[in-house]
Design a protein that fits this description.
Blueprint lengths: L1 H8 L14 E5 L5 H11 L6 E3 L4 H10 L3 E5 L2 H11 L5 H15 L7 E4 H6 L1 H12 L10 H11 L7 H8 L4 H12 L5 H4 L6 H14 L5 H16 L4
Parallel strand pairs: 1-2, 1-3, 3-4
Length: 244
Amino acid sequence: MYLPFARLKYPGPSPEVISPRTELVIDGYFRSANTFAVYAFQLSQDRPVRLAHHLHAPAQMIAAARRGIPALLLIREPHDATLSELIYEPDVALPDALAEYCRYYERLLPWLSSFVVGEFEQVTHDFGAVIHRLNARFGTGFAKFTHTDASMRECFALMKHRGTQAEIVYGFESGWFTLGQLRRELPALACQPQPPELREAWIPAGSREHLKGALHRQWLRPGLARLRERAQLVYQEIRAAAGP
């Protein structure tokens, strides 16, 4: 029932909802390298690939499983994922974030064999290996991302333009526009204003680690013990599918 509503709410270009044109789904819980995976993937390809992404909804992954569409499920250790979410969305309460984390991944456990799992550390440090597993699992021929200083700089530089909400940026994510088209628009994008809180929202930043340290005290509250254990259990079960 959610996906028809999502298509009305998100007509494109981003987030892209799964459709008959979708070639690959990349999705996961909030703050689990969703944006990095999308940009690193598209940067690696010799043509735009139609991606469904950034819904953060189990329904999209289940639809991919039912249709036999290649899908990459992203996951991050619950402590870091939920605290990062609270920094990005300070109105969210930690118990709610933990409960939603659990519900998201628990809903996908019966479908786990239909996905390739990308754990946060491997996605952000060896994404080429993740794409290799995608190709092996689904018989696809996607080009692999190589972690070099140059490729990482370009990936982060493009991600910084998300805050402009420009169609060319969002369209690149979803496979509507080529990398060449996006590059031609970069000088104009650099002149566009964007909210300061969004300029670095998807880029790793040491300042956020300090904020996580303050939130860690909330994480340790005794009243969250059951939710912490539940989140760790589902994380370990899904993480095991990612391999060593």
